[in-house]
C-alpha cells in the first residue's frame, strides 16, 4: 500500500477549490510513498489517498495559471514522475450550456461528464480548427478516446442510475460532516453547499449583465422560465464538452461558437483539450455558471464539490482487475 506502483489513477484539478473538494472526498489520505522519486523537471505537488479499492494521486495546475497549455504541462509532469498511471480524471468546474427548449435542462450545481458521441471522443477544442464552407468549423480529430475500463464504468453507473438514485447527496453530506467549515459561508466566499434556487437564474442571450457581483439589478422579464425542481440534488448530464483557451462569458459569443462547431455540447471549460490527447482521461465538471455575462463565483465551490462527489461514486464502478490490465498512459501517449 505504501508503494508508488500501487497508484494507477491520476486526478487533475485546475483550481485550489477543486483540489480541496477532491481531497475532501478521499476515504483515506496517505503519506507520500517512501519509494516515490519525483522527476527533477516535475514541479507538481501531490496529494495521495484512496477511494474504495483504488489508490489515487491528485495534482493541480499552478496557482493563477490556467488553460490548455498549463493543463498539458501538469499532466506531462505527472506521467514523467508516475509512469505507472493508467487513467486520468480531470475534475472541476465549467460553464453549462443550458437549452431547456431542447430538453437540455442543465442547472447550476449539476454535473457534466464527457462521453463519446459519433466521431467525437467526448471533448472538442473549439478554438483550434479550420473554417469550412457554410460557416462551419472543422474540429481537431476526435479528442479523448476513452479506454475500455472507463467506458465500462460509465455504462455500469448509468445503468445503476436508471434504477437507483445517485449517491452524490450522501457523499456531499459525508464531506460536510467530516469538514464542517466547507459547509460554511465566509464573507464573499460561499461554502461548498447549494446556493439556493433563487440564485440560479438563466437569462436570454440578448440580455447582458447590468453590473455588480450578483444579478439583483438584472431585468427579470428577460429571465428564461424553467420548471422548478423539487430537490437540490444535482442531475448528471453526459455529452460532448467544448474546451479551449478562451474564457467564454458572453451568451452571443457562446452561441456562435456552438453553431460553428456543429456539436450539441453540454459545457465550456479550459483544460481538457490540453490533456486528453496525452492522457486517457475522463472529464467531469460541476456547472458553476452559464458561460454568459452573468457569470460570477458564487457557485464555484459547490460545483467543485458535486463534480468531486460524482467522481467518487464513479470510481466505485471502475473494476480493479480491469484497471490493472489497462495499458499505462505513457504506452498510449500521442505526441
UniProtKB/TrEMBL annotation:
GO terms for biological process: nucleoside metabolic process. One of its GO terms (molecular function) is catalytic activity. It comes from the Eukaryota. PANTHER family: AAA+ ATPASE DOMAIN-CONTAINING PROTEIN-RELATED, ATP/GTP-BINDING PROTEIN-RELATED. This is Nucleoside phosphorylase domain-containing protein. It comes from Trichoderma lentiforme.
Amino acid at each position: 500500500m505504501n508503494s508508488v506502483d500501487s497508484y494507477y489513477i491520476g486526478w487533475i484539478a485546475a483550481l485550489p477549490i477543486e483540489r480541496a473538494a477532491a481531497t475532501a472526498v478521499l476515504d483515506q489520505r496517505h503519506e507520500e510513498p517512501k519509494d516515490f522519486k519525483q522527476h527533477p523537471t516535475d514541479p507538481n505537488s501531490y496529494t495521495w489517498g484512496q477511494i474504495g479499492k483504488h489508490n489515487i494521486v491528485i495534482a493541480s495546475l499552478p496557482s493563477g495559471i490556467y488553460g490548455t497549455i498549463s493543463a498539458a504541462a501538469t499532466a506531462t509532469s505527472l506521467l514523467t514522475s508516475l509512469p505507472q498511471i493508467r487513467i486520468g480524471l480531470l475534475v472541476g468546474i465549467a460553464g453549462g450550456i443550458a437549452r431547456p427548449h431542447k430538453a437540455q435542462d442543465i442547472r447550476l450545481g449539476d454535473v457534466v461528464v464527457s462521453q463519446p458521441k459519433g466521431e467525437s471522443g467526448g471533448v472538442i477544442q473549439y478554438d483550434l480548427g479550420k473554417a469550412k464552407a457554410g460557416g462551419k468549423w472543422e474540429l481537431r480529430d476526435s479528442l479523448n478516446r476513452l479506454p475500455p475500463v472507463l467506458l465500462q464504468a460509465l455504462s455500469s453507473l448509468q445503468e445503476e442510475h436508471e434504477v437507483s438514485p445517485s449517491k452524490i447527496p450522501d457523499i456531499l453530506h459525508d464531506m460536510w460532516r467530516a469538514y464542517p467549515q466547507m459547509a460554511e459561508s465566509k464573507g464573499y466566499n460561499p461554502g461548498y453547499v447549494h446556493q439556493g434556487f433563487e440564485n440560479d437564474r438563466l437569462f436570454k442571450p440578448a440580455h447582458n449583465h447590468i453590473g455588480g457581483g450578483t444579478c439583483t439589478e438584472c431585468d427579470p422579464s428577460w429571465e428564461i422560465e424553467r420548471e422548478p425542481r423539487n430537490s437540490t440534488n444535482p442531475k448528471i448530464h453526459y455529452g460532448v464538452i467544448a474546451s479551449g483557451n478562451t474564457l467564454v462569458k458572453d451568451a452571443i459569443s457562446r452561441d456562435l461558437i456552438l453553431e460553428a462547431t456543429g456539436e450539441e455540447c453540454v459545457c465550456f471549460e479550459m483544460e481538457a483539450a490540453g490533456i486528453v490527447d496525452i492522457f486517457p482521461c475522463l472529464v467531469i465538471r460541476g456547472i458553476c455558471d452559464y458561460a454568459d455575462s452573468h457569470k460570477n463565483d458564487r457557485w464555484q465551490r459547490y460545483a467543485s464539490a458535486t463534480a468531486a462527489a460524482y467522481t467518487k461514486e464513479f470510481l466505485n464502478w471502475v473494476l480493479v482487475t480491469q484497471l490493472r490490465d489497462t495499458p499505462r498512459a505513457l504506452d498510449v501517449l500521442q505526441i
